Amino acid sequence: MLKPGFVAQRANLGQQVYQHLLDRIYKMEIEPGTQLGIGEMADQLGVSRSPVRDAFVHLMAEGVLEPLPSGGYRVIQFTHKYIDDVFVMRHALELTAVRLSVPNLDRARIQQLRDTWAQFADADPADPTLIERHGRADQDLHQCIAEMSGNLLLKDALDKIVSIAALVRRWHYAGHIPHRHLMMTVREHLRVLDAMLAGDVEGAVAALDEHLSIARARTLERLDDAPAAS
């Protein structure tokens, strides 16, 4: 399940285990729905149970892992209800965040984001780094909006949602997302960024609302197309 290469360092071992597992979950090396046990994971990584337990607690706080009635744990499993819940929260929080962020705009950072997304318009579909770069830019944009809202409580709430959204996106992209969908996302993000740079609060809210609605529909379509679990 896990690839070799984990080298335990004594300092902050729980944090290291957490980051190691999170990276592999985001890379789909540990897939949604996979059951994990503290003892089994400790044996695989060559560490005691304590740092693994700490890592699992952190992953649960991030919304990436959930406890099972049997006493084990499971990577969040995507269902229609779960994805709907994610997008309900994203709509509620991110639309508020973008409304607050426009008056607090860091124009240089937003322009940098826009330049990054504009470059994707001419991206080579065969570029093996495209999906990874696209995903990082997507997360950076949504985190940036959260930070510029100037509301620390809102940002804290969005940190968890953006993290879960990144996991959903990784899963979505792992299904060989059509290049045209990536380009549609580019255009959607550019509309959000252009409205922000223009100081158009309502335009930015409308553009982000449309983007999230389309993203929800695409994600549910991906779920419907996924092979049934055996």
CATH class group of the largest domain: Mainly Alpha
Helix fraction by DSSP (H/I, runs of at least 4)? 55-70%
Can you say what the CATH homologous superfamily of the largest domain is? GntR ligand-binding domain-like
Q: Which consecutive residue ranges, at least 5 long each, have pLDDT under 50?
A: none
Shape: globular
Radius of gyration: 19 Å
List descriptors.
Four Helix Bundle (Hemerythrin (Met), subunit A); globular; single chain; 3% strand; 3 strands; 230 residues; three-stranded antiparallel sheet; Arc Repressor Mutant, subunit A; mainly alpha; 68% helix
How does this model look, in words?
By secondary structure, the chain is mainly alpha-helical. Helix content is 68%, strand content 3%. The protein contains 9 helices and 3 strands, in the order αβααββαααααα. It has a 3-stranded antiparallel sheet. The chain is globular.
Short characterization:
Helix content is 68%, strand content 3%. The protein has 230 residues and is mostly helical. The protein has two domains: 13-75, Winged helix-like DNA-binding domain superfamily/Winged helix DNA-binding domain (Arc Repressor Mutant, subunit A, Orthogonal Bundle); 80-225, Four Helix Bundle (Hemerythrin (Met), subunit A).
